[in-house]
Amino acid sequence: LTVLNAGRRYLKVEDLSGKVFVTSGLGGMSGAQAKAAVIAGCVGIIAEVDEAALLKRYKQGWLMEISNNLDHCIARLRDARKNKVALSLGYHGNVVDLWERLVYELDTTGELLVDLGSDQTSCHNPFSGGYYPVQLGFEEAKQLLSTSPGKFRTLVQESLRRQVAAINRLADKGMFFWDYGNAFLLEAQRAGADVEKRGANKTEFRYPSYVQHIMG
């Protein structure tokens, strides 16, 4: 319902075929995102750093394909988008790399390849394993978390700033991003990312909340 209503409200369409939804997280609640994309009829690309979570969703049948290669992900995205085929593709990697690759595609080809975007990493708990920084691999990051939590925190905040910078670039060209109630925008703001709403007070974000703006 969230994905369908985001399409209705922000893209002004009832039919999401050929539309692309990019997000992250295939764990507890976030695992449903892959299934939602296919039910809604769009192309869903969901990033997940934990291979165990990816494989669980794949074995459940909630995720149609898995890839750790961004070139392949972009090729599959383009093909499914062009042919208006419903697809749920799990990218085994960091969502920041995926967002930055979409910015690269925009800059080099002029194509905006994503229509809808969100995030379901566990940003209510970003410094204890809820969000993994793009600068490190999954296992390396887990090790740093246990040996140097302060350094891990610094990398997480830098990663959040990079993620928001990429999202903002794509949103400026017409992608619609929303907050999924996971404290992503709050933690990005705390990290110094550009998420505040222009001309509003500091408690308002430039992107909507799924509760108030989409489901409401």
Question: What tags apply to this protein structure?
Answer:
Rossmann fold, 6-stranded parallel sheet, 10 helices, 6 strands, 50% helix, globular
Written description of the protein model:
There is one protein chain. With 216 residues, the protein is of the alpha/beta class. The protein has a single domain (1-215), classed as Urocanase like domains (Rossmann fold, 3-Layer(aba) Sandwich). The protein is built from 10 helices and 6 strands, in the order H-E-H-E-H-E-H-E-H-E-H-H-H-E-H-H. The chain has helices spanning 2-11, 32-40, 51-60, 70-83, 95-109, 126-130, 138-147, 149-171, 184-190, 210-215; strands at residues 20-24, 43-48, 65-67, 87-92, 116-117, 176-177. The protein has a 6-stranded parallel beta sheet with strand order 3-4-2-1-5-6, sandwiched between helices. Strand 3 (65-67), helix 4 and strand 4 (87-92) form a beta-alpha-beta unit. Helix 7 crosses helix 8 (149-171). The protein starts with a helix and ends with a helix.
Strand content: 5-15%
Write down the overall mean pLDDT. 93
Number of domains: 1
Poorly predicted regions are none
| CATH superfamily grouping | Urocanase like domains
| Bulk shape | globular
Biggest sheet details: 6 strands, parallel
Q: Total strand count, please? A: 6
The Rg value, from CA coordinates, equals 16 Å
End-to-end distance: 11 Å
Task: Summarize the amount of helix as a percent range.
Answer: 40-55%
Query: H/E series, N to C?
Result: HEHEHEHEHEHHHEHH
Strand order of the largest sheet: 3-4-2-1-5-6
Domain Urocanase Rossmann-like: 2-214
Pfam family, one: Urocanase
InterPro entries: Urocanase-like, Urocanase_central_sf, Urocanase_Rossmann-like, Urocanase_sf
Protein name: HUTU hydratase
